[in-house]
Amino acid sequence: MMSDLAIRLGIIGLGAQGGYYAGFLSKDRVPNVTLAAICDTDESKRAAAEAYGVPFFTDYLTMLDSGAVDAVVTTVPHYLHPEMGIAALDRGLHVLVEKPVGVYTRQARRLLDHAAARSDLTTAVMFNQRTNPLYIDLRELIQSGELGRLRHTSWIITTWWRPQGYYDQSAWRATWGGEGGGVLVNQAPHQLDLWQWLCGVPTSVFAKLAFGFKRDIAVEDEVTALVDFGEGATGTFSTCTHDLAGTDRLEILLDAGKIVVDDSTTVTITRLSAPEQEISAGMSLAEVRRLFTGEGDTSKYVSVTTTTYDSPWTDQHPAVLQNFAAHALDGTPLIAPVEDGIHGVRLANAIHLSGWTGEEVSITDFDEDRYLAELNERIAREGTFPTREGD
Amino acid sequence: MMSDLAIRLGIIGLGAQGGYYAGFLSKDRVPNVTLAAICDTDESKRAAAEAYGVPFFTDYLTMLDSGAVDAVVTTVPHYLHPEMGIAALDRGLHVLVEKPVGVYTRQARRLLDHAAARSDLTTAVMFNQRTNPLYIDLRELIQSGELGRLRHTSWIITTWWRPQGYYDQSAWRATWGGEGGGVLVNQAPHQLDLWQWLCGVPTSVFAKLAFGFKRDIAVEDEVTALVDFGEGATGTFSTCTHDLAGTDRLEILLDAGKIVVDDSTTVTITRLSAPEQEISAGMSLAEVRRLFTGEGDTSKYVSVTTTTYDSPWTDQHPAVLQNFAAHALDGTPLIAPVEDGIHGVRLANAIHLSGWTGEEVSITDFDEDRYLAELNERIAREGTFPTREGD
Q1: Measured between CB atoms, which of A165, A280, A281 is closest to B283?
Q2: Which chain A positions have a beta carbon within 8 Å of B210's beta carbon?
Q3: What is the ipTM of this complex?
Q4: pTM of the complete model
Q5: Size of interface A-B (CB pairs under 8 A)
Q6: Which among B296, B250, B297 has a CA at the least distance from the CA of B269?
Q7: Exposure string (b/e) for B162-171, b if CB count within 10 Å is 16 or more?
Q8: What is the model's pLDDT at position A110?
Q9: Which residue from A229, B84, B270, B386 lies 20 to 30 Å from B38 (Cα-Cα)?
């Protein structure tokens, strides 16, 4: 039974990520969550689980049915998140899925549908970077409307350097059938989520991807995407895993100001004295001429603030878990409800599809059947893992 | 007659730019060029020309035939550069065309063909930013091969803010028939040239353009382009004229290093201790694990240098003019030979065509007939200026 003070959490998958969760939970880092059970198909993990003093299961359904847990977190390969989440919901358990909520939108939607049908339960996704005060402040600023509507945005996020040895750790990594993609599915989902959380959901995308560009892998290690937000607003998103001098730079241009974020820590906000089009329209020809003879001065129209945030890495996962439990216990609003997770999956799928087909791909009216067919073609050609069902 | 020491230059077009040339020439800023004549179709410019103490013409052909000049510079609307350049070459005069060398590739090629046929004469283009020591140093570094081959590049160049009053100055400005485009044709040609001068010529482009997005004009004031350089190397180019807090940031990622340029003055060069793929392949699994537990250290593989250059704006135009004259006088190699100008025109045309059609457009095999047909359709719809001939 769930107490009023804490939920009993089961971890499905004691790999690197599951071990990280077990570690901070065993140190009581999350006051309203108790580590209650651990599941891993690998029997050799039993000793590690028992060291935490909790029951160990090799079959996750047995753990779900054991009565030992009120909730689960899925720290398993991405393809498994939806089916495990659904099985837990069907048994009346709360679910926190690791990102991404699924590899392709059809399986992600199945999870969302189940979550919607069980709104008495809490279903959330581990978008830990949403707890970063920097992005919370920016979202509030943009949502307030003070800076007006979006004009353009770009994110160069190439700090995801991964050497060949990283990919060689497990057979499922960086394969179509085992992981479902590369940097778009594993590393960049954080930024794909934050970008849309801040700037809105794009309507279409054209992308160039390179597969096994600088690593011996089947999937993409280099991505350049151009998105359309409608009504003239556009954006670019670039990521890769082969830039040792990685860049993290986000720009957001709006009608009455501009936001530039460097290294996810330094925020420069330029506020205009009026909406830009008003300044443009109100400038006399004489003033325009002064501007172009070097005597003009546009600085009177702008005020700039720069804020540096502490890096909050160590608290992000515990904070999302605490929020998840608080929602289950008393209805505290969720930081990352599961339904938000579909946007990043769809954008990643659309970027893949554009890269595969060479065509601009609609996100608003995304062709998920075509995506799955193209993905299955690659899984079949790879020949190591089973193709995926459409539902 | 041309002396051994200086060429006699005629200026065609005494607008803002022509006036600027006349100004620095009359102050003897270019030792091997003498201001010798001025032409403008506007009779009211006669007094200004006479103040410089040189003959004034209202017909440029009369000036070319007068014997008063050895060379001309074309500071006139972009469409006129090729035909005026050709007329001068046909009369045995050297030609410096303002950028761009033409609005569309067919007319630019005609000029290039004439220039090639008269290799005894000097034909160059005013890419003044090529004289910036920053870009000269970067080009030398890249050409040396020390940093290896290109992987990715991006240029956000939105420092071209232009208020509505700027566009309202002349009827030809920011029209299809009078100017042939917006920011791609007027402001960004500098960067379109430098980008290719540094990174090579792309093979294809997909672009989103917004026409009259934040200004009351027919042409583009917002451009986002994604280019392919072949073999997995890609790039993005973003520009606009409505960002009061404009960004100028160029990134170039190569196999053994990375270049980041901020504000065209600060260059950060990261050199790797070995080609990136060698570092990746040579990293042991234990080292990979240390990296991901926060105990790793990639800094031993990189060395970073930052150099800040003085802004060289005031000397650029005189320097190109001096180089142009030196080539005519003694064969000094040209900074910006006219044939280099075609690349920027083709890239701008291809970006337009992609924006108009919604398709990815080949640059290697550029369909210039289709471009001209699409351009003429817009000129005809505008109804103010004549459509353009194909040759």
Answers
A1: A165
A2: 232, 234
A3: 0.94
A4: 0.95
A5: 171
A6: B250
A7: bbbbbbeeee
A8: 96
A9: B386
